[in-house]
Batch of 2 targets.
Target 1
Amino acid sequence: MPIPKAIKTPWLLVLLVIGGCGSQEGARFALPGKVGASGEIVVVCENSVWSGAVGDTLRSIFGKPFPVLPQYEPWFDLVHLTPESFDRFWKPHRNIIDLVLADRVDTQVPSVSIYREKYARNQIYIEGAARTSAGLALALAEREEEMRSILHRTEVERFGLLMALDENEVIKAELAERMQLELTLPRDARWAKKNDEMGWIDRQLTRMKGGDNHDVQQGFVVYREPYTSDEQFSMQARLDKRNAIMRAHLPGPTKGSYMTTEMRYIPSYEETVFNGQFASELRGLWRIENNYMGGPFYSLTVLDERSGELVTVEGYTYAPYFDKREYMREAEAVVRSLQWADPTKQKE
């Protein structure tokens, strides 16, 4: 079942629409698992289409910079295939854009349709058809934000599903007891600090590049604060609170160093709705004062109506030898796994 056309649809509405477009449950498990690298889109079209206005439009849409990273990385990497090469090996790919230029009855009006799970579980499949290259390029451009949002959030959801297969139950239970919330964290995460004001969870990884092992760090910070005014949701208020928490609780590797926000690059701020409650998102760069370390972060602040408090969950990455886009999608998956803990399930 296709997702109906919706230009500049808010992310929440997009997710509500796409969530209802999967296969029936029994048929779903008959589908193969998805293949392909995270952040990759296979574009199926003739060479003439790929090298013309349609290909240029797709490269513009998905080649825009991923928000607030220290170096340029595109939203998605595009892989072009001709229709003849698009065989059963490629059809289960995680993200597919299938384009047709033809003078037929059904292509007189350019169309773009978005499907979930056409050939594989958790797959996003986009079909575009038109009579002319200009018409198809325009139809794709009109749904730029919607396509990018659906594909990004689906990649984040996929990381969340993977982590849920082997999550850290110990930290999850302790967060429920200490802070009345739940997060899905990978099993190799560990506590770096916990007190009455905040919790800091650390994850240390090792990745190979250029024949050598290099360290990658992901961190997650959780804190509550009394909710007294709508002004607390403003970008400046969120930055002030973030910097205060980081300075007090996240020391750097050398004496007198601590985490703060890098303000030479303007953070990205958006007010949104998360799980039916008012929230704000903040994306930016962090740095260590009096040191050289730095990287990107993603922060979500949500009103907990049960307690009348604001809850902030942040994920950040330090990966100086690697691209950071997919590490940040993984960190975002942890942040957006936030749920309120059920008090009835906590230990007596």
Target 2
Amino acid sequence: MRFHQAVAFLETDQLLDLCRATDDLGYAGIYLSDHIFFPRTLKSRYTYSPYEDGSPIWSPETDWPDNFCLISAMAAVSRQLLFTTGVYIAPARDLFTVAKAVGTAACISGGRVRFGVGVGWCKEEFDATGQDFHTRGRRLDDMIPALRALWSGGWVEYHGPHYDFDALQMNPTPPRPVPIYVGGHSEPALRRAARLGDGWIAAQAYSEQDAWHYLGLMKEHLAREGRGDEDFTIYMALNEMPDVDLYRRFEEAGVTDLICAPWMIAATSGGDYRSSLDAKLQATEQFAEAVIRKMPS
């Protein structure tokens, strides 16, 4: 099982130091989340909100650095970390902007980018970027094969229901195929992952019971697509205390990658994730010692 440190909500000016430590301590990667902005007037309901009004769990002041600027910077200060977007709201952007950003970061990092995608929930972001919110799922279905074509190198063309272009070249090209993982646990998301994805990213941190439930659903969808015996990457986060035996059980069941956030231990009692860098580094080291070094590589 590979362990990836999630860095959503954290202060941007601490991230490169945290990346260096994550690399040195034996984590497999960094897991990045995506938003473009936070609107003052927010009418959209956050899909996974615990609140009755559907509001997000983060404050408007939270940092959301651009994923591919950050990946390129992190790649320059690390040796072996993988960088996974979890998840990037690709249909809130145009196809060519997405393809260029991901392909360039994959090239700069030496092929260490793992592209996790989702349809998003914040209509305000789609409206601001001029992308149709209501067709975002269908467009993502068409965007995935179009991206693979654009990253394949040489003269390429693509003719789909939403994206249609004649022969062109987009350089630089990734040194190897960029894996595309589909995020979410709705029925459309699970179908999309099984049909089009190289893997699946669970929608949120689950209780153990919910994790087994959604893992079972994902496997059912893979079986329906005739992919039950294929290699398929599964990222999962567990809302449980760190437990090596628990992680081993999920690994045996097919979970290949675990998303962790040891820096949450360093959060203040008021729930503010903005703790000192030293506290985050200490928590990162403690998790590596207590869990990663006890798991088989």
